[in-house]
Amino acid sequence: MLMSETEKESSKIESAVTFEVVEEGELSGGERVRRRGVYLLPNLFTTAALFSGYYAILASMSGYFEKAAIAIFLAMFLDGLDGRIARLTNTQSQFGAQYDSLSDLIAFGMAPSILAYNWGLSHLGKAGWMASFIFAACAALRLARFNVQSESVDKRFFIGLASPSAAAIVTSLIWLYDDMSLAGSFPEIIALLVTVGAGALMVTNLKYYSFKTIDFKGRVPFVFIVFMLIIFSVIFIDPPKVLFAIFFTYALSGPIWMARDSCILSKKEG
Questions:
Q1: Which one of 77, 134, 144, 151 has the lowest number of neighbouring Cβ atoms within 10 Å?
Q2: Using CA atoms, how far apart are residues 113 and 196, in angstroms rounded to an integer?
Q3: Per-residue confidence at 9, pLDDT binned at 50, 70, 90?
Q4: Would you state the torsion angle of the CA atoms of residues 209, 215, 216, 219, taken in this order, to the nearest 10 degrees?
Q5: Which residues pair with 23 in a beta bridge?
Q6: pLDDT for 150-184, tens place per residue?
């Protein structure tokens, strides 16, 4: 039975005022289906990560740099959970992927750059705010590139430094400076160079191991749990120093990996 013009207009109005997400999917037989609603569990973790990033911005604006740094690292922890929970519970969706990217832009693009600016880059004038902007813009570019290449690249590696790792480098450095009560031109220039460098690494084609091949559902040797306890203990001894050392070393792994591949290639050609 055909709908009247009035019914069609009523349907349009209803769809315009209804808070709903309609996502197109595809069945195994090739039939297109439309799914309404979103998965609750993984998106709750994404929302919590987004809130942590937002809180970090507010905290840094008020001068609470340590609280801002902790909030960004909390966002990293939550961001690492949402995708894995979605895969473990088979609740992946395009909405979740896009929402996660937008959350990452706030938590790992805007929050670290504003934290660095409020901590000391603002004292460097135009160079300071440009460095802060470069980091945020590179994070946005990194996330956009990841979205369009996610289905075509090797899952074992990230192309370019992942935005959470880049955010961790900048955040842990500022946390370290604040913890040691360091200020002045030299620490601020170092922070500027690290902020720009971390941003640049995000948009390179360097390969970084993604850790996505680790099977969290499988069994592991008992010694692995002991090793993880040792790592957590070391981190809690002096979080800013240990976290900066870990993520700075990880950032160097990309150029080292590239140099290794170049050496192997040159030997083969030779």
A1: 151
A2: 10
A3: low
A4: -130
A5: 35
A6: 777 777 889 999 999 999 999 999 999 999 988 88
Tens digits of residue pLDDT in 107-122: 999 999 999 999 999 9
Helix axes 40-61, 65-88, angle to 10 degrees: 170
Token pair listed for 190 = 């170092």
Tell me the HSE value of 26 on the side-chain side, using a 13 A CA sphere.
4
236/73 Cα distance (integer angstroms):
13
Element (H, E) at 32: strand 32-36
Tokens coding 230: 């040792």
Task: Give the number of other Cβ atoms within 10 Å of residue 169's Cβ.
Answer: 23
Q: Which CATH number fits domain 37-269: 1.10.390.10, 3.30.470.20, 1.10.8.60, 1.20.120.1760?
A: 1.20.120.1760
d(CA 146, CA 210) in angstroms, rounded, equals: 13
C-beta separation of 256 from 161 below 8 A: no
In 3-state terms, what secondary structure has residue 209?
A: strand
Hey, what are 21's tokens?
A: 């997400």
Burial annotation 73-100 (CB, 10 A radius, 16+ → b, else e): bbbbebbebbbebbeeeebebebbbebb
Roughly what angle, to the nearest 10 degrees, separates helices 163-179 and 65-88? Answer: 150
Closest CA to 96 of 177, 26, 161, 37: 37
